[in-house]
Amino acid sequence: MTRTALVTGASSGIGRATALALARDGAAVACAYASNDAGAKETVELIQDAGGEAAAFGGDVSDETQVKDLFRQLRDWREAPLVLVN
Asked: What string of DSSP letters covers 2-70?
């Protein structure tokens, strides 16, 4: 079963680099972002263009309600063991 990695801040910088590295290692990557929708979508495109699996998920991880919603969305997207990179 393919691992699923949730990477917060995947829209740029260290988060993007981490998401790309996990995708190269074979993980399906959930690219979480708080406000940079365009950056997260760009990260997803980079992963998909390289043959990987990825999706963008918006939400503020400092808000418990949004975190619960994020994990519900993730379960709908992929049923797989989850690695969290925060």
From this structure: --EEEEETTTSHHHHHHHHHHHHTT-EEEEEESS-HHHHHHHHHHHHHTT--EEEEE--TTSHHHHHHH
